[in-house]
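Q: I'm writing up a methods section and want to include an example of the input and output format. Could you take the sequence below and give the corresponding predicted C-alpha coordinates, formatted cleanly so I can copy it straight into the document?
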Amino acid sequence: MKRLTQVVVLFVFMAVLAACGGGRATDIAEPMTENVVHLPAATAAYDVAAEAIMEAPAAGLQPPNDQAYADMFFEDYGVNPFIDTEDDNLSTFAIDVDTGSYTLMRSYVNRGNLPPDEAVRVEEFINYFEQDYAAPQTGAFAIHLEGAPAPYGENDSYYLVRVGIQGYEVGREQRPDVTLIFVIDVSGSMDMENRLGLVKQSLRILVDELRPTDRVGIVVYGSNARAVLEPTYVDSRRTILNAIDSLQPEGATNAEAGLMLAYRMADEYRRGEGITRLILCSDGVANVGNTGAETILQHAAAGISLSTFGFGMGNYNDVLMEQLADQGDGSYAYIDTLREAERVFIHDLTGTLLTIAKDAKIQVEFNGDVVERYRLLGYENRDVADEDFRKDDVDAGEIGAGHSVTALYEIKLADEFDLAAAAMTIYVRYANPDSGEVVEINNAITIGQFTASFAEASPRFQLTAVVAEYAEILRDSYWARGNDLNSIVFDARRIAEYFPGDEDVQEFAQLVNAAVNLTR
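A: Here is the clean output for your methods example:
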Protein backbone atom coordinates (compact mmCIF):
# COMPACT_ATOMS: atom_id res chain seq x y z
CA MET A 1 0.00 0.00 0.00
CA LYS A 2 1.67 3.26 -1.17
CA ARG A 3 0.06 5.57 1.36
CA LEU A 4 -2.28 5.37 4.30
CA THR A 5 -5.29 7.52 3.55
CA GLN A 6 -7.16 9.71 5.99
CA VAL A 7 -10.69 8.55 5.28
CA VAL A 8 -13.02 9.51 8.06
CA VAL A 9 -16.02 7.22 8.07
CA LEU A 10 -18.65 6.44 10.63
CA PHE A 11 -17.08 3.25 11.98
CA VAL A 12 -13.74 5.04 12.59
CA PHE A 13 -15.52 7.89 14.33
CA MET A 14 -17.39 5.48 16.56
CA ALA A 15 -14.23 3.49 17.28
CA VAL A 16 -12.41 6.62 18.40
CA LEU A 17 -15.30 7.59 20.63
CA ALA A 18 -15.44 4.11 22.11
CA ALA A 19 -11.72 4.12 22.79
CA CYS A 20 -12.03 7.45 24.56
CA GLY A 21 -14.77 6.34 26.87
CA GLY A 22 -17.92 6.29 24.74
CA GLY A 23 -20.31 8.98 23.58
CA ARG A 24 -20.79 10.62 26.97
CA ALA A 25 -17.72 12.45 28.23
CA THR A 26 -19.34 12.74 31.64
CA ASP A 27 -18.89 9.03 32.38
CA ILE A 28 -15.91 9.23 34.73
CA ALA A 29 -14.08 6.41 36.43
CA GLU A 30 -11.73 7.36 39.26
CA PRO A 31 -9.69 4.37 40.39
CA MET A 32 -7.44 5.27 43.32
CA THR A 33 -5.00 3.36 45.52
CA GLU A 34 -3.35 3.93 48.85
CA ASN A 35 -0.19 4.93 46.97
CA VAL A 36 -1.83 8.02 45.48
CA VAL A 37 -1.13 11.33 47.21
CA HIS A 38 -3.81 14.03 46.86
CA LEU A 39 -3.53 17.78 46.66
CA PRO A 40 -6.81 18.96 48.19
CA ALA A 41 -5.98 22.67 48.16
CA ALA A 42 -4.66 22.71 44.63
CA THR A 43 -7.57 20.59 43.42
CA ALA A 44 -10.08 22.90 45.07
CA ALA A 45 -8.51 25.92 43.42
CA TYR A 46 -8.51 24.10 40.12
CA ASP A 47 -12.19 23.13 40.44
CA VAL A 48 -13.18 26.78 40.83
CA ALA A 49 -10.99 28.04 38.00
CA ALA A 50 -11.91 25.22 35.61
CA GLU A 51 -15.67 25.30 36.14
CA ALA A 52 -16.27 26.53 32.60
CA ILE A 53 -14.05 23.82 31.15
CA MET A 54 -15.79 21.13 33.16
CA GLU A 55 -19.11 22.12 31.62
CA ALA A 56 -17.79 21.16 28.19
CA PRO A 57 -18.64 17.43 28.35
CA ALA A 58 -22.34 18.20 28.58
CA ALA A 59 -22.14 19.64 25.06
CA GLY A 60 -20.56 16.47 23.66
CA LEU A 61 -17.08 15.56 22.50
CA GLN A 62 -15.07 18.23 20.70
CA PRO A 63 -13.08 17.84 17.46
CA PRO A 64 -9.25 17.71 17.66
CA ASN A 65 -7.25 20.90 16.98
CA ASP A 66 -10.61 22.69 17.06
CA GLN A 67 -11.16 21.02 13.66
CA ALA A 68 -12.78 17.90 12.21
CA TYR A 69 -12.06 14.37 13.41
CA ALA A 70 -9.42 12.13 11.85
CA ASP A 71 -7.86 8.85 12.89
CA MET A 72 -4.24 10.01 12.36
CA PHE A 73 -4.00 13.78 12.36
CA PHE A 74 -1.17 15.58 10.52
CA GLU A 75 -0.70 19.05 9.06
CA ASP A 76 0.56 19.67 5.52
CA TYR A 77 3.02 22.59 5.70
CA GLY A 78 4.01 22.37 2.04
CA VAL A 79 7.53 22.15 0.60
CA ASN A 80 9.98 25.05 0.43
CA PRO A 81 10.67 26.25 -3.15
CA PHE A 82 13.91 27.42 -4.69
CA ILE A 83 14.34 31.18 -4.27
CA ASP A 84 16.42 33.41 -6.54
CA THR A 85 18.90 35.44 -4.52
CA GLU A 86 18.18 38.52 -6.63
CA ASP A 87 14.60 38.36 -5.32
CA ASP A 88 15.42 37.53 -1.68
CA ASN A 89 18.92 36.78 -0.42
CA LEU A 90 17.82 36.14 3.19
CA SER A 91 16.50 32.89 4.68
CA THR A 92 15.23 33.08 8.27
CA PHE A 93 13.76 30.42 10.53
CA ALA A 94 13.36 29.45 14.17
CA ILE A 95 15.69 26.77 15.49
CA ASP A 96 14.01 23.45 16.20
CA VAL A 97 15.17 20.18 17.81
CA ASP A 98 12.00 18.09 17.52
CA THR A 99 12.35 14.50 16.31
CA GLY A 100 8.79 13.12 16.47
CA SER A 101 8.30 12.90 12.70
CA TYR A 102 11.20 10.47 12.29
CA THR A 103 10.04 8.00 14.94
CA LEU A 104 6.48 8.17 13.62
CA MET A 105 7.88 7.17 10.22
CA ARG A 106 9.72 4.30 11.83
CA SER A 107 6.53 3.10 13.50
CA TYR A 108 4.66 3.22 10.18
CA VAL A 109 7.36 1.29 8.31
CA ASN A 110 7.71 -1.31 11.05
CA ARG A 111 3.95 -1.87 10.82
CA GLY A 112 4.12 -2.38 7.05
CA ASN A 113 3.10 1.01 5.67
CA LEU A 114 4.74 4.18 4.40
CA PRO A 115 3.79 7.33 6.29
CA PRO A 116 1.42 9.90 4.79
CA ASP A 117 3.20 12.71 2.93
CA GLU A 118 2.15 15.29 5.50
CA ALA A 119 3.60 13.26 8.39
CA VAL A 120 7.14 13.87 7.09
CA ARG A 121 9.07 16.91 8.34
CA VAL A 122 12.56 16.81 6.87
CA GLU A 123 14.24 18.73 9.69
CA GLU A 124 13.01 16.21 12.26
CA PHE A 125 14.52 13.37 10.24
CA ILE A 126 17.86 15.19 10.04
CA ASN A 127 17.94 16.18 13.69
CA TYR A 128 17.25 12.66 14.92
CA PHE A 129 20.88 11.71 14.29
CA GLU A 130 24.10 12.61 16.05
CA GLN A 131 26.28 15.05 14.12
CA ASP A 132 29.49 15.01 16.19
CA TYR A 133 29.90 18.77 16.10
CA ALA A 134 32.63 20.23 18.30
CA ALA A 135 31.36 22.06 21.40
CA PRO A 136 31.72 25.85 21.50
CA GLN A 137 34.94 27.16 23.04
CA THR A 138 33.13 30.27 24.28
CA GLY A 139 29.49 31.27 24.45
CA ALA A 140 26.40 29.12 24.16
CA PHE A 141 26.83 27.97 20.55
CA ALA A 142 29.31 27.09 17.85
CA ILE A 143 28.36 27.36 14.15
CA HIS A 144 29.64 24.57 11.88
CA LEU A 145 29.47 24.76 8.08
CA GLU A 146 30.26 22.20 5.40
CA GLY A 147 29.52 22.06 1.67
CA ALA A 148 29.80 19.48 -1.09
CA PRO A 149 28.30 18.70 -4.50
CA ALA A 150 24.70 17.51 -4.28
CA PRO A 151 24.62 13.71 -4.69
CA TYR A 152 21.18 13.58 -6.31
CA GLY A 153 20.12 15.31 -9.50
CA GLU A 154 21.78 15.76 -12.85
CA ASN A 155 23.09 19.35 -12.67
CA ASP A 156 26.66 19.61 -11.36
CA SER A 157 26.20 23.27 -10.42
CA TYR A 158 24.06 22.30 -7.40
CA TYR A 159 25.61 21.88 -3.96
CA LEU A 160 24.48 21.03 -0.45
CA VAL A 161 25.49 23.10 2.58
CA ARG A 162 25.05 21.75 6.10
CA VAL A 163 24.51 24.40 8.76
CA GLY A 164 25.13 23.00 12.24
CA ILE A 165 24.60 24.70 15.59
CA GLN A 166 26.07 23.03 18.67
CA GLY A 167 25.13 24.05 22.21
CA TYR A 168 27.43 23.80 25.19
CA GLU A 169 27.29 20.76 27.45
CA VAL A 170 26.16 20.81 31.08
CA GLY A 171 26.95 17.82 33.25
CA ARG A 172 24.28 16.04 35.25
CA GLU A 173 25.61 17.40 38.52
CA GLN A 174 26.03 20.95 37.20
CA ARG A 175 22.45 21.60 36.16
CA PRO A 176 20.05 23.30 38.60
CA ASP A 177 17.53 21.22 40.53
CA VAL A 178 14.41 20.50 38.55
CA THR A 179 10.71 20.28 39.37
CA LEU A 180 8.94 18.10 36.79
CA ILE A 181 5.18 17.88 36.55
CA PHE A 182 4.19 14.74 34.67
CA VAL A 183 0.95 15.40 32.79
CA ILE A 184 -0.37 11.97 31.89
CA ASP A 185 -3.24 11.17 29.54
CA VAL A 186 -5.18 8.30 31.14
CA SER A 187 -8.18 8.44 28.81
CA GLY A 188 -9.69 5.30 27.34
CA SER A 189 -7.66 5.58 24.13
CA MET A 190 -4.47 5.17 26.18
CA ASP A 191 -5.56 1.59 26.89
CA MET A 192 -5.05 0.70 23.23
CA GLU A 193 -1.79 -1.14 22.42
CA ASN A 194 -0.79 -0.75 26.05
CA ARG A 195 0.06 2.92 25.46
CA LEU A 196 -0.28 3.78 29.13
CA GLY A 197 1.95 0.82 29.94
CA LEU A 198 4.75 2.26 27.79
CA VAL A 199 4.20 5.68 29.38
CA LYS A 200 4.69 4.14 32.82
CA GLN A 201 7.87 2.34 31.76
CA SER A 202 9.19 5.54 30.17
CA LEU A 203 8.52 7.68 33.23
CA ARG A 204 10.20 5.12 35.48
CA ILE A 205 13.31 5.50 33.32
CA LEU A 206 13.10 9.28 33.65
CA VAL A 207 12.71 9.15 37.43
CA ASP A 208 15.76 6.90 37.70
CA GLU A 209 17.84 9.54 35.88
CA LEU A 210 16.86 12.37 38.23
CA ARG A 211 18.81 13.47 41.30
CA PRO A 212 17.54 13.08 44.87
CA THR A 213 17.11 16.87 45.12
CA ASP A 214 14.83 16.98 42.05
CA ARG A 215 11.06 16.82 42.49
CA VAL A 216 8.25 15.11 40.59
CA GLY A 217 4.54 15.91 40.64
CA ILE A 218 1.82 14.06 38.74
CA VAL A 219 -1.39 15.32 37.13
CA VAL A 220 -3.64 12.99 35.14
CA TYR A 221 -6.59 13.67 32.91
CA GLY A 222 -9.38 11.61 31.43
CA SER A 223 -12.82 13.20 31.24
CA ASN A 224 -11.48 15.71 33.74
CA ALA A 225 -8.20 16.31 35.57
CA ARG A 226 -6.91 15.64 39.05
CA ALA A 227 -3.68 15.90 41.00
CA VAL A 228 -2.29 12.46 41.88
CA LEU A 229 1.02 13.42 43.47
CA GLU A 230 2.22 16.74 44.79
CA PRO A 231 5.85 17.61 43.88
CA THR A 232 7.87 15.05 45.82
CA TYR A 233 11.64 14.80 46.16
CA VAL A 234 13.15 11.95 44.19
CA ASP A 235 14.80 10.58 47.31
CA SER A 236 11.24 9.34 47.98
CA ARG A 237 11.52 7.34 44.77
CA ARG A 238 9.17 4.56 45.85
CA THR A 239 6.31 7.01 46.48
CA ILE A 240 6.70 8.44 42.98
CA LEU A 241 6.89 5.02 41.32
CA ASN A 242 3.88 3.76 43.24
CA ALA A 243 1.85 6.73 42.00
CA ILE A 244 2.94 6.03 38.40
CA ASP A 245 2.18 2.32 38.69
CA SER A 246 -1.31 2.99 40.07
CA LEU A 247 -2.57 4.77 36.96
CA GLN A 248 -5.38 3.15 34.95
CA PRO A 249 -7.21 4.21 31.75
CA GLU A 250 -10.48 6.07 32.23
CA GLY A 251 -12.96 8.32 30.47
CA ALA A 252 -12.68 10.78 27.60
CA THR A 253 -9.77 13.19 26.98
CA ASN A 254 -9.76 16.66 28.53
CA ALA A 255 -6.18 17.75 27.75
CA GLU A 256 -7.06 21.38 28.42
CA ALA A 257 -8.10 20.63 31.99
CA GLY A 258 -5.02 18.47 32.57
CA LEU A 259 -2.59 21.13 31.38
CA MET A 260 -4.44 23.87 33.21
CA LEU A 261 -4.08 22.04 36.51
CA ALA A 262 -0.46 21.12 35.75
CA TYR A 263 0.50 24.73 35.07
CA ARG A 264 -1.15 25.76 38.33
CA MET A 265 0.74 23.10 40.25
CA ALA A 266 4.03 24.03 38.58
CA ASP A 267 3.51 27.71 39.31
CA GLU A 268 2.71 27.00 42.95
CA TYR A 269 5.75 24.80 43.51
CA ARG A 270 8.37 26.50 41.35
CA ARG A 271 11.59 27.50 43.10
CA GLY A 272 13.85 30.46 42.45
CA GLU A 273 16.97 29.12 40.76
CA GLY A 274 15.56 25.75 39.75
CA ILE A 275 14.04 24.47 36.53
CA THR A 276 10.27 23.93 36.30
CA ARG A 277 8.95 21.96 33.36
CA LEU A 278 5.83 20.07 32.29
CA ILE A 279 6.24 16.63 30.71
CA LEU A 280 3.13 15.69 28.73
CA CYS A 281 2.63 12.03 27.76
CA SER A 282 -0.34 11.44 25.45
CA ASP A 283 -1.64 10.22 22.11
CA GLY A 284 -2.85 13.77 21.55
CA VAL A 285 -6.46 12.78 20.93
CA ALA A 286 -8.09 15.56 22.96
CA ASN A 287 -11.88 15.61 22.64
CA VAL A 288 -13.26 17.51 25.66
CA GLY A 289 -12.94 21.26 26.21
CA ASN A 290 -10.69 23.24 23.87
CA THR A 291 -8.64 20.89 21.69
CA GLY A 292 -6.30 23.21 19.76
CA ALA A 293 -2.81 24.11 21.00
CA GLU A 294 -3.38 27.87 21.07
CA THR A 295 -6.64 27.66 22.99
CA ILE A 296 -5.30 25.05 25.42
CA LEU A 297 -2.18 27.09 26.16
CA GLN A 298 -4.15 30.18 27.13
CA HIS A 299 -3.73 28.68 30.63
CA ALA A 300 0.09 28.51 30.41
CA ALA A 301 2.17 30.09 33.16
CA ALA A 302 5.11 32.33 32.22
CA GLY A 303 8.55 30.77 32.58
CA ILE A 304 7.30 27.16 32.64
CA SER A 305 8.20 25.11 29.58
CA LEU A 306 6.16 22.24 28.16
CA SER A 307 7.76 19.25 26.44
CA THR A 308 5.51 16.67 24.78
CA PHE A 309 6.04 12.94 24.25
CA GLY A 310 3.69 11.10 21.93
CA PHE A 311 2.52 7.49 22.23
CA GLY A 312 0.33 5.25 20.09
CA MET A 313 -0.77 4.64 16.51
CA GLY A 314 -4.14 4.17 14.86
CA ASN A 315 -5.55 7.31 16.40
CA TYR A 316 -2.83 9.82 17.10
CA ASN A 317 -2.75 13.62 16.87
CA ASP A 318 0.72 14.67 15.74
CA VAL A 319 -0.48 18.24 15.14
CA LEU A 320 -1.50 18.89 18.72
CA MET A 321 1.59 17.28 20.25
CA GLU A 322 3.99 19.17 17.98
CA GLN A 323 2.25 22.52 18.34
CA LEU A 324 1.91 22.26 22.12
CA ALA A 325 5.67 21.80 22.39
CA ASP A 326 6.34 24.58 19.86
CA GLN A 327 4.08 27.11 21.53
CA GLY A 328 4.95 25.81 25.02
CA ASP A 329 8.70 26.51 24.51
CA GLY A 330 9.67 22.85 24.72
CA SER A 331 10.56 19.93 22.47
CA TYR A 332 8.51 17.16 20.88
CA ALA A 333 9.46 13.50 20.60
CA TYR A 334 7.47 10.39 19.72
CA ILE A 335 8.13 7.24 21.74
CA ASP A 336 7.32 3.98 20.02
CA THR A 337 9.60 1.59 21.92
CA LEU A 338 11.26 1.25 25.29
CA ARG A 339 14.60 1.75 23.55
CA GLU A 340 13.41 5.12 22.28
CA ALA A 341 12.33 6.05 25.80
CA GLU A 342 15.84 5.24 27.01
CA ARG A 343 17.30 7.36 24.23
CA VAL A 344 15.09 10.34 25.08
CA PHE A 345 15.19 10.13 28.87
CA ILE A 346 18.77 8.99 29.42
CA HIS A 347 20.88 10.23 26.53
CA ASP A 348 19.01 13.51 25.94
CA LEU A 349 17.81 14.18 29.48
CA THR A 350 19.90 17.23 30.41
CA GLY A 351 19.15 18.92 27.12
CA THR A 352 15.46 18.18 27.58
CA LEU A 353 15.46 19.78 31.02
CA LEU A 354 17.91 22.70 30.86
CA THR A 355 17.30 25.48 28.33
CA ILE A 356 20.45 27.39 27.34
CA ALA A 357 18.89 29.68 24.72
CA LYS A 358 15.44 31.19 24.22
CA ASP A 359 13.88 32.56 21.04
CA ALA A 360 16.77 31.25 18.95
CA LYS A 361 16.67 32.15 15.26
CA ILE A 362 18.91 31.60 12.24
CA GLN A 363 19.27 33.99 9.33
CA VAL A 364 21.33 33.00 6.29
CA GLU A 365 22.52 35.78 3.99
CA PHE A 366 23.41 34.57 0.48
CA ASN A 367 25.92 36.33 -1.71
CA GLY A 368 24.16 36.86 -5.04
CA ASP A 369 27.50 37.03 -6.85
CA VAL A 370 28.17 33.41 -5.83
CA VAL A 371 24.78 31.76 -5.23
CA GLU A 372 22.13 32.09 -7.92
CA ARG A 373 19.32 30.34 -6.03
CA TYR A 374 18.79 28.34 -2.83
CA ARG A 375 16.32 26.09 -1.04
CA LEU A 376 16.01 25.21 2.65
CA LEU A 377 15.09 21.55 3.14
CA GLY A 378 12.40 21.41 5.79
CA TYR A 379 11.53 23.93 8.51
CA GLU A 380 8.40 24.93 6.57
CA ASN A 381 6.47 25.53 9.80
CA ARG A 382 9.38 27.39 11.44
CA ASP A 383 9.58 30.26 8.98
CA VAL A 384 10.32 33.69 10.44
CA ALA A 385 9.94 36.94 8.48
CA ASP A 386 13.36 38.30 7.49
CA GLU A 387 12.60 41.66 9.09
CA ASP A 388 11.76 39.91 12.40
CA PHE A 389 15.19 38.35 12.86
CA ARG A 390 16.40 41.17 15.12
CA LYS A 391 13.03 41.80 16.74
CA ASP A 392 13.63 40.20 20.11
CA ASP A 393 9.96 40.06 21.08
CA VAL A 394 9.25 37.58 18.26
CA ASP A 395 8.82 34.06 19.59
CA ALA A 396 11.23 31.49 18.17
CA GLY A 397 12.90 28.24 19.30
CA GLU A 398 14.38 27.01 22.56
CA ILE A 399 17.58 24.97 22.73
CA GLY A 400 18.66 22.66 25.54
CA ALA A 401 22.15 22.01 26.89
CA GLY A 402 24.25 19.84 24.59
CA HIS A 403 21.67 19.89 21.82
CA SER A 404 22.65 20.37 18.20
CA VAL A 405 20.51 21.73 15.39
CA THR A 406 21.14 20.98 11.72
CA ALA A 407 19.70 22.56 8.60
CA LEU A 408 20.48 21.63 5.00
CA TYR A 409 20.45 24.04 2.06
CA GLU A 410 20.59 23.14 -1.61
CA ILE A 411 22.19 25.93 -3.65
CA LYS A 412 22.85 26.58 -7.35
CA LEU A 413 26.05 28.46 -8.08
CA ALA A 414 26.37 31.42 -10.41
CA ASP A 415 28.13 30.85 -13.73
CA GLU A 416 31.19 32.74 -12.54
CA PHE A 417 32.25 33.55 -9.00
CA ASP A 418 35.18 34.19 -6.71
CA LEU A 419 36.19 31.01 -4.85
CA ALA A 420 37.39 33.12 -1.91
CA ALA A 421 34.21 35.15 -1.57
CA ALA A 422 31.70 34.20 1.13
CA ALA A 423 28.90 32.21 -0.47
CA MET A 424 26.68 32.50 2.58
CA THR A 425 26.92 34.02 6.05
CA ILE A 426 25.01 32.44 8.92
CA TYR A 427 23.76 34.53 11.83
CA VAL A 428 22.40 33.00 15.04
CA ARG A 429 20.53 35.21 17.48
CA TYR A 430 19.20 34.12 20.88
CA ALA A 431 18.46 35.29 24.42
CA ASN A 432 20.15 34.04 27.57
CA PRO A 433 17.28 32.39 29.51
CA ASP A 434 18.58 33.67 32.87
CA SER A 435 19.74 37.23 32.16
CA GLY A 436 17.61 37.95 29.09
CA GLU A 437 20.73 39.29 27.33
CA VAL A 438 20.46 38.93 23.55
CA VAL A 439 23.50 37.51 21.74
CA GLU A 440 24.23 37.33 18.02
CA ILE A 441 27.03 35.30 16.44
CA ASN A 442 27.94 34.55 12.81
CA ASN A 443 30.11 32.45 10.55
CA ALA A 444 30.60 32.20 6.78
CA ILE A 445 31.68 29.66 4.17
CA THR A 446 33.27 30.05 0.73
CA ILE A 447 32.98 27.70 -2.25
CA GLY A 448 36.71 27.15 -1.90
CA GLN A 449 35.97 25.39 1.40
CA PHE A 450 33.60 22.90 -0.23
CA THR A 451 34.82 19.37 -0.95
CA ALA A 452 35.39 18.48 -4.59
CA SER A 453 33.04 15.48 -4.46
CA PHE A 454 30.23 14.21 -2.26
CA ALA A 455 32.28 11.12 -1.35
CA GLU A 456 34.98 13.38 0.13
CA ALA A 457 32.56 15.07 2.53
CA SER A 458 32.52 13.98 6.17
CA PRO A 459 30.54 10.80 6.90
CA ARG A 460 28.03 12.74 9.03
CA PHE A 461 27.48 15.20 6.17
CA GLN A 462 26.83 12.31 3.81
CA LEU A 463 24.42 10.74 6.31
CA THR A 464 22.51 14.02 6.62
CA ALA A 465 22.17 14.31 2.84
CA VAL A 466 20.88 10.75 2.44
CA VAL A 467 18.44 11.07 5.35
CA ALA A 468 17.12 14.32 3.86
CA GLU A 469 16.63 12.74 0.43
CA TYR A 470 14.82 9.79 2.03
CA ALA A 471 12.45 12.24 3.72
CA GLU A 472 11.98 14.22 0.50
CA ILE A 473 11.01 11.07 -1.40
CA LEU A 474 8.64 9.92 1.35
CA ARG A 475 6.79 13.23 1.27
CA ASP A 476 6.65 13.22 -2.57
CA SER A 477 8.63 16.45 -2.79
CA TYR A 478 8.65 18.04 -6.21
CA TRP A 479 12.41 18.42 -5.86
CA ALA A 480 12.90 14.65 -5.49
CA ARG A 481 10.68 13.78 -8.44
CA GLY A 482 13.55 12.27 -10.43
CA ASN A 483 14.52 9.95 -7.61
CA ASP A 484 13.02 6.99 -5.76
CA LEU A 485 13.77 4.91 -2.69
CA ASN A 486 15.68 2.32 -4.70
CA SER A 487 18.26 4.93 -5.60
CA ILE A 488 19.28 5.61 -2.00
CA VAL A 489 19.40 2.05 -0.65
CA PHE A 490 23.04 1.69 -1.68
CA ASP A 491 24.01 5.02 -0.10
CA ALA A 492 22.23 4.15 3.16
CA ARG A 493 24.07 0.82 3.36
CA ARG A 494 27.41 2.38 2.39
CA ILE A 495 27.16 5.11 5.01
CA ALA A 496 26.11 2.60 7.68
CA GLU A 497 29.54 1.03 7.22
CA TYR A 498 31.10 4.26 8.51
CA PHE A 499 29.20 3.88 11.80
CA PRO A 500 29.25 0.21 12.84
CA GLY A 501 28.57 1.11 16.48
CA ASP A 502 25.80 3.65 15.87
CA GLU A 503 22.49 1.81 16.30
CA ASP A 504 20.48 4.70 14.87
CA VAL A 505 22.43 4.72 11.60
CA GLN A 506 22.27 0.93 11.30
CA GLU A 507 18.54 1.04 11.87
CA PHE A 508 18.14 3.79 9.26
CA ALA A 509 19.70 1.57 6.58
CA GLN A 510 17.26 -1.19 7.54
CA LEU A 511 14.29 1.20 7.40
CA VAL A 512 15.25 2.39 3.92
CA ASN A 513 15.41 -1.22 2.75
CA ALA A 514 12.06 -2.00 4.38
CA ALA A 515 10.50 1.09 2.79
CA VAL A 516 11.70 -0.02 -0.63
CA ASN A 517 10.04 -3.41 -0.12
CA LEU A 518 6.76 -1.64 0.71
CA THR A 519 6.76 0.05 -2.71
CA ARG A 520 7.02 -3.19 -4.67
